[in-house]
Amino acid sequence: xxxxxxxxxxxxxxxxxxxxxxxxxxxxxxxxxxxxxxxxxxxxxxxxxxxxxxxxxxxxxxxxxxxxxxxxxxxxxxxxxxxxxxxxxxxxxxxxxxxxxxxxxxxxxxxxxxxxxxxxxxxxxxxxxxxxxxxxxxxxxxxxxxxxxxxxxxxxxxxxxxxxxxxxxxxxxxxxxxxxxxxxxxxxxxxxxxxxxxxxxxxxxxxxxxxxxxxxxxxxxxxxxxxxxxxxxxxxxxxxxxxxxxxxxxxxxxxxxxxxxxxxxxxxxxxxxxxxxxxxxxxxxxxxxxxxxxxxxxxxxxxxxxxxxxxxxxxxxxxxxxxxxxxxxxxxxxxxxxxxxxxxxxxxxxxxxxxxxxxxxxxxxxxxxxxxxxxxxxxxxxxxxxxxxxxxxxxxxxxxxxxxxxxxxxxxxxxxxxxxxxxxxxxxxxxxxxxxxxxxxxxxxxxxxxxxxxxxxxxxxxxxxxxxxxxxxxxxxxxxxxxxxxxxxxxxxxxxxxxxxxxxxxxxxxxxxxxxxxxxxxxxxxxxxxxxxxxxxxxxxxxxxxxxxxxxxxxxxxxxxxxxxxxxxxxxxxxxxxxxxxxxxxxxxxxxxxxxxxxxxxxxxxxxxxxxxxxxxxxxxxxxxxxxxxxxxxxxxxxxxxxxxxxxxxxxxxxxxxxxxxxxxxxxxxxxxxxxxxxxxxxxxxxxxxxxxxxxxxxxxxxxxxxxxxxxxxxxxxxxxxxxxxxxxxxxxxxxxxxxxxxxxxxxxxxxxxxxxxxxxxxxxxxxxxxxxxxxxxxxxxxxxxxxxxxxxxxxxxxxxxxxxxxxxxxxx
Length: 813
Prior knowledge:
By secondary structure, this protein is an alpha/beta fold. The strands form four sheets. The chain has a 37-stranded parallel sheet that branches. The chain has a 23-stranded mixed sheet. A five-stranded parallel sheet has the order 62-63-64-61-65, sandwiched between helices. Strand 63 (657-660), helix 10 (676-689) and strand 64 (695-700) form a beta-alpha-beta unit. Helix 5 runs antiparallel to helix 6 and helix 5 runs antiparallel to helix 7 (604-617). The longest helix has 22 residues, at 561-582. The chain is flat, with a radius of gyration of 37 Å. Pfam families: AAA, AAA_lid_6, Beta_helix. Residues 590-729 form the AAA+ ATPase domain. Keywords: ATP-binding, Nucleotide-binding, Repeat. Belongs to the CbxX/CfxQ family.
């Protein structure tokens, strides 16, 4: 076959159509070819603008890769508008306003193409086209590498963009391609870019590197999902999200980035799973603006090369880190500005040169079951309005475990600070803070150092082997700023390691609301009167039941088998977690707030009461008592009164269970200016600020509670699980009546059990039907009718006084 000619092999089924023709131009060959024909192009340079409009195969000669050059002077070198096969071609374009390869329609297969061009785009896919592109290379130092636009899609496998003056791969206008094992490098714009509503980019096993810009840029309501991808050696941020962008990174690696590894703002949402972020010059995660959110699970952020915090959350943004590791960084987590929030669960913050957790300017941080090690400061709540909670956390090897200053007011619960060089907890400059069941061991200074008259609250805290003393309350007189003095109750200290009497001891004793439990722990300060008070206060009252005792009572309840399994599963998780902590192991964080759904009278209140008692027996709750409220108890008649009522109810339940019956009534379907929303907002904040102090259970009809949770995602996110209480069957209602009869020394006479079964089967099951309540009301009605019958007898036997007969049943309602 001569150079400059095209051989077309027709593969029709009819013998007379089987023929081979040679054509002087590609355009002529394409014009002559039909669907299914194979066009084999002889080596050479073709200055033609080709348009493939039939399902043909267009290829270069076998064994001569790159020998066929499609290189017109201007325009689009190759346009594909059919489900054709194009392979083994070298495409060159010179038109800055047009792509080198344009795919407009069909599902063509493009393989082993080499595109060296100075065009607007190396490859452009648009409209309804869905190509499969394999092993293609794009080198376009004048424009975009690959552009997928205007609803286009397709799959790109093992493709490479070796250079681009703009983005390596750009997705816009509602396009949605998938990249598999592709490489993008040496671009002057973003490596991967997705922009615009409904635009979506999916990448698996890809690598983006040597980028003079951001490695990945998602903006303008676009979405992207990267799995097992590498982003590294960029000059700008590794990943940038802006303006309602949504990005998911799973099993990815972002490293060697001189700026922010990941920067997102303007209501963007990022989800990271099993992703590593390392060797970044500014922030590992930089999160800005209200509505912007990061959720990281099982991720690692490490090896900062700059002097900035690893995770930065500001301007009202939110970050959630679960089972993550942050290490070898200047600062681990900075949360600042009112409305900003960070939730960190079961995570490790280690090898931190400065502060592991810093909260300032009214921000909030919530840390549960976290481990902070080898930091200058474990956590620092810096100023007024800044707060949150540290719960079940440990700080080991810090200069100072926790610092609270300038009016900040966090809650620190069941936290342990080990071997601080200076102090376990340091409170100054008008700060407050609540420290509950906290422990300091081996401090080089004080265990708790509270100065400047700060009104911190210490309850049931313990210090051991603190070189300068367990507790220091300096300048705590009645004239101190803020009203003077800490509130200290039931705190203890050992008397070893040369403990000396605390400086300003007398001031602390006089001005703070100090229980004598604390004084009893301070050497040389215990009086006879105080000693007797401690003894009286510690005298045991009525012995508390064990969790097994309470679960035994639960098991005696009629029916509710699935409910019993759920409660026992929760109890087992809490108990095993407690034992693991005692053994020095990690314990899973169990969220204890619950949703109870079901009809009235199915035992929800009873189970809530037993649940509280179980948690108290396990040491999770202080008291375990039940406070039952409904809408009327929480919602006031005027602005402001609802928050006060809700706060009061929450305070009554402190140490126990707050049970909100018919909770859906707080959010009616036609709410208008209803104050129920205020009760919900107040409750959510209280649950955040004091999540270890009260267990909240919301209850109501199944359908209504589903609606309530769906329209209040802030509430729904606080509850770990929903337990459904099924309606009692006729047999179970009969058992309840039998229990009531036995309790009140009655018996069911012959035929009464069968009559009750028929009665409960026939009774209307409308909205007013009360299940267990109906059974109890039925028994009471039977006792009343029995009394009316027996009272007419002149003489009565024991059977007369105790047996209930079918005629004692009330009429069906």
